[in-house]
Design a protein that fits this description.
Blueprint lengths: L8 H33 L4 H16 L6 E2 L12 E3 L4 E6 L4 H13 L8 E6 L9 H8 L7 H4 E2 L1 H8 L4 H15 L14 E5 L2 E5 L3 E6 L4 H14 L16 H11 L9 E3 L2 E4 L19 E4 H5 L8 H19 L4 E4 L4 E4 L7 E6 L2 E12 L2 E20 L2 E13 L9 H11 L2 H15 L8 H4 L5 E2 L4 E6 L3 H6 L3 H6 L15
Parallel strand pairs: 3-4, 4-5
Antiparallel strand pairs: 1-2, 2-3, 6-19, 7-17, 7-18, 8-10, 8-11, 9-10, 12-13, 13-16, 14-15, 15-16, 16-17
Helix pairs in contact: 1-6, 1-7, 2-7, 3-4, 8-9
């Protein structure tokens, strides 16, 4: 009888993996020798190798699909060489392993505000990292700006090999192929990668569901009486805390209603609008005890949203359509309040603010355990004081297309002086961020914001989800759209825009670190 020995697929893959790892180690050793020889001859230029080899290698190992060589866009880009904006990860490539080189790199990162765009900054040594780095010196440079751990963020080829040992075989083989083509036997891999010329396009709109009907009730308060009673109460108040509630004859109707509710000791929600002598809300106004002091609840009637915003001939009643959009925004504002997302009326943006008076707020999402959405920025001249407050923010709009309602979300940043009022540094800081922002940054911000806004719809929050007036779907995507190479596109930007990327801020303001 012939006994045939078999090798399990798992065992076979392990053998292939070990063989590939051994070959990768050999290829890195070859490369280190090339570096030393070229350094001695004064011929070595790491930028070319970074572009040809390290970009695809680091792209695979660190899962940075949009990693690119910044030096191909701006010559001698300060502080960093390679970066992926979507993953907020950057690399400095160097053959020097001294702590002074590391400090010089981090100093340039801070000076040119690159830490605003990249949370994870690595220093990759082409030869070998030092066995030990002075953490105290490094912390003196980065303290208050961003975290940098020399044990994990100063790396060399040995660190890459250790990372590879935890990755899938397909990734290891791809890295081996890249190194083999450039450093070993290029004929071993003769089948070129075929580039696809289409890509999905994510629009910054999300389909939403809204209630089918709204309630309309006549108001019962007398405007002049409310203004008179309110102002008498404010004037009689010893503490100046109520002075800001003083009303004039030009005050908005909403302000008058807030005053009437406050004097009736009724703490109202914001999910309503008033037009003329009518108040509209998605809440059942017949049972709304909060608004009862200022409406005739018994005369409240439900109206279908469709009939409210359309004329008899099926065309839109533009006045009613705009009223409904305003109601949707105010309802959304009330819906987000418990999540620490507030509305800034003058700037027309929603912004994330602190919870429990903490100086830093992070929100977990599917791509990281904690991403910064709020930070109290210390004064660089007196760190015991706060310079301003930095908030992740977004503009929101409501529109209907062919019977489907959509929410548009436009990410931005907001800087406040007191967690609400706009800071005098707002315009300058936002301008800096917009100069450096790229499509991938905006996409990541958009996807993050949408995910946070949908948290109340999770199954474990089903009880609360059932009370939501506005529910969000998934972002709208267009498939098979024409591929646009962002790196190539950026090469053709106006010269002054490219130069603006390296222009330092007038003040060393701290930034909202994103993860």
């Amino acid at each position: 009888m012939l006994l045939v020995a078999s090798v399990s697929p798992l065992s076979s893959n392990k053998m292939i993996l070990e063989k590939s790892i051994d070959r990768i180690i050999e290829l890195f050793a070859i490369f280190k020798l090339q570096i030393e020889d070229k350094n001695k001859a004064g011929l070595f230029d790491s930028n070319r190798f970074s572009e040809d080899v390290l970009v695809p290698v680091l792209r695979d190992i660190f899962d940075c699909p949009y990693l690119r060589n910044l030096n191909s866009e701006i010559r001698n880009y300060p502080g960093i060489d390679l970066a992926d904006a979507s993953k907020r990860t950057a690399f400095q490539i160097t053959s020097e392993n001294s702590v002074d080189k590391v400090i010089d790199t981090l100093d340039k990162v801070i000076k040119h505000e690159s830490h605003r765009l990249y949370d994870n900054i690595f220093v990759y040594n082409l030869k070998k990292r030092a066995s030990k780095y002075n953490k105290t010196k490094i912390k003196e440079v980065t303290k208050g700006y961003f975290d940098f751990d020399p044990d994990t963020q100063i790396i060399d080829s040995n660190d890459l090999v250790r990372r590879l040992q935890t990755l899938d075989l397909s990734i290891v083989k791809r890295v081996e192929e890249t190194l083999e083509v450039h450093l070993g036997n290029p004929t071993k891999f003769f089948v070129p990668h075929i580039q696809t010329w289409t890509e999905p396009l994510v629009l910054n709109i999300v389909p939403i569901t809204i209630p089918d009907e709204l309630f309309v009730a006549p108001t019962t308060y007398v405007r002049e009486d409310v203004i008179k009673a309110n102002n008498k109460e404010v004037e009689d108040e010893i503490d100046d805390g109520l002075r800001r509630y003083f009303l004039g004859h030009k005050s908005s109707e909403r302000s008058v209603i807030w005053a009437a509710l406050r004097m009736a000791n009724s703490r109202s929600h914001s999910a309503w609008v008033v037009r003329g002598r009518e108040l509209l809300s998605f809440h059942n106004l017949r049972d709304d005890a909060v608004l009862a002091p200022i409406i005739d609840a018994s005369a409240s009637d439900p109206i279908s949203v469709e009939s409210y915003i359309k004329n008899a001939d099926g065309s839109f009643n533009l006045d009613h359509l705009n009223i409904l959009k305003d109601l949707l925004r105010k309802t959304f504002q009330a819906q987000l309040a418990h999540r620490g997302v507030n509305w800034q009326h003058k700037e027309r943006v929603f912004f994330f603010t602190t919870l429990n008076e903490s100086k830093v707020r992070k929100e977990a999402w599917s791509k990281s355990e904690g991403r910064m959405v709020y930070k109290a920025v210390p004064n660089p001249h007196d760190r015991s004081k706060t310079l301003n407050h930095e908030h992740l923010a977004f503009e929101a709009g409501f529109n209907v297309f062919e019977g489907q309602w959509y929410l548009s979300v436009k990410p931005t940043m907001y800087y406040s002086s007191n967690r609400y009022r706009k800071s005098k540094w707002h315009k300058q800081n936002v301008s800096i961020i917009k100069r450096k922002d790229r499509n991938n940054n905006v996409l990541e911000d958009f996807l993050f914001i949408v995910e946070i806004l949908k948290k109340d719809q999770n199954a474990d929050l089903l009880e609360h989800a059932n009370s939501l007036w506005i529910k969000l779907g998934d972002p709208v995507q267009m498939v098979n759209t024409a591929y646009l190479d962002d790196a190539e596109w950026l090469k053709h930007e106006e010269k002054h825009k490219r130069e603006a990327l390296t222009k330092p801020a007038d003040l060393p303001l701290l930034s909202l670190s994103k993860q």
